[in-house]
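Re: the request from the purification team.
They wanted to know what the chain is likely to look like in 3D before they choose a buffer screen. I agreed to run a prediction and write the result into the notebook, where they can find it.
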Amino acid sequence: MNNTSKTSFSTRTLIKYPRSLCALAVATGLAGLPVMAQEQETAADKKGLERIEVTARKTVESLQEVPISVTSIGGLELDEKGISVLTEIQQFSPNTTLQNSRGTNSTLTAFIRGVGQQDPLWGYEPGVGIYIDDVYVARPQGAVLDLLDVSRIEVLRGPQGTLYGKNTIGGAIKYVTKPMSGDAELNVKGTVGSYAQQDLKVTGQYPLMEDKLYIGFGYANLSRDGFGEYLVSALPNQDLENYNKDLSATRVTLEFTPSDDLFFRLAWDKTTDDSNAKGGYRLVPSILTNAPVPASVFDSYTSLPTENKVELEGISLTANWDINDNLALKYIGAKRESYSPTNIDFDNTPLDIFDVPAIYDDNNTTHEIQLNYRADGMSIVSGIYAYDGESCGQFEAILGVFGRSLGLPGLTREVSGCNNSNSTAAYVQGSFDLTEQLSLTVGARYTNEEKQADVNNGLVFASVYPESGWIPGYTRPDGNLVPKVLGEDSNDDGTLDKAKSQSWSRFTPRVGLEYQANSDLMFFASYSQGFKSGTFNPRATLNEPAADPEIVDSIEVGMKSDWSDNLRVNLTLFSLDHKDRQYIGVIPSDDATVLNQYLANVAASSAKGIEAEITYVASDNLTFDVALGTFDSKIEENNSVPPLLGISNTPKYTMNFSANYVIESGVGDFIVNANYYYRDDYRLFEDSDLLQEDGYGMLNMSVSWQHEDGHWYASLHGKNLTDKEYLVGGYNFVGVNDDGSYAPGLGGDTTLIGYYGDPRTVSLTVGYRF
């Protein structure tokens, strides 16, 4: 039954995938991005259902042989649809949410099947893991990636606790980048579009030693004016563009193949995103300033600097040794650093009602060794993994207006500290043929993790900023301004001076059965478990204990089927139980300066749903695709303050219908692509109904072309053609009176803020391959 046993799993096999017709992009801080080989697959080559290869189980397999719910989008499809950033992938993966976080352009909010992480503060762990060539991206800052030279993107839905480990309770998203062909190549393309978009991308490769050593390089400069503007800024000489883009990225890759059995890849990258801080839209008028609600959802006001920065840098090493025809050894090591000074004006007015300047500073090192075995009737993937990360930060909640109303020069709640993690794990997963048609998959992972936290939290009776010069003329006082509040020992003055630490260990299993009815029809059923790390509250105001890990148990029953050469239907039914959910609770207070938040395991939920992905090849030139997701959830335990009202960031229904038509001509193929995406109602926060998005649809259309000689290519893309406005993030610091009117929240104002997805845009790309 196990057709995958016929396929070698060496690194050389893994990199032999079809190439896309255009370079597409990973410009934002990716470790180990090999430059693509420029072999081109034309649209006319895609006759009937194509074989889609994935590495969801850390070995190369056909999508139709993988017994999990996974969406794979290849480089050619990414180009035809004009998918340029990670967040657009949500349209094509059922029950998936990938959106820009509030306040910044490059921070990711990711949910799959209602499981994820809303808050991007240091110390909080994601619920959906992001992997770049098997390297884990630990923080959401910088994770909204522009795509460059991607072989494919895989979305693995459901907990992936065996092969991928902690922080994949919702699932995992994998970038698989393109390898080098070994030939001397250069690819240059430029894009112009709406809002003065101007992008330049240059990639290439050169053989240093024939058939042995290759060097690859890439550079991207991406810019665009803002969708809106800051109508008023309280500071002079500010760039008033809102939702703009200003990003550059550079990388270098070396690939070395000293023999047929050995392969090495060394990759370095650096990305700088200087896009402005993103201002939100006031959904209700301020009661402390007469600035009206803006006419455009992309316009805002601010009393902070508009500048913002995300700096990412990383280096990775991959080594593969094919010991023999059945056994391979692989090592993946990486080191990544990121630094982000950011300005988030929570109240979005020209007054310092609730301003939050912040700094995020992260670095981590990972090592993984895999030993993989394959023979007739069985395959085994095993490995050990180590992660060492430091996540630090500081933010100032400046409540200047309220402080001055008390006769103070200002008022700031300052929070700073670090949440450091050391994690080691061992895993093994095997697939065994019980009969010619029935196989068994069994896997397990054991993880041991230790975390250490250090938190400073307190009031400063002045308006303070993270660094001197943050605003013109500002000098920060020397020394620590607030006491430690999370530790083991007390000083004579009552403050605490030692960081707290705690460790957890977890065994996460997976077991599944697969029945291959015939070569084109497989049924599968599985049970799997995943966990999200325990952690300390980085905003702690009390000496509180750590929250324990979250646990998700999931059952899947599904079918992978090619009913004919023209019809593919993949269907999954799932149910999950999400226990020990971590939530930030609030200790009620009548004092507008108090932000007494605590982190605890206060809730549990359950969910069930269906995911269907259908492809119908109507003719050699016309293909239809449908992706449908349903999601039905229930809060089973609810001890949160305030209580949870439902699951956030996940609608009951998602649907995408797309059509692809190829026009063959004497000057090359023209590919016309259109898709309509529908997303049902969803709330942005689980404890409030004040920020909700009604169901909406989005229409996109593209036309792409490449010359028959493979050198010139071009594409025209229209996104969100109906110019639909839709919420993707927000802030809710407002109360509701008995009569339904709004009451002031923290800072003394009615702060209810929305952030929105991209408006209608049109872009034209022209490129040439040498």
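For the purification team: The CA atoms of residues 739 and 753 lie 21 Å apart.
Please add any questions underneath this entry.
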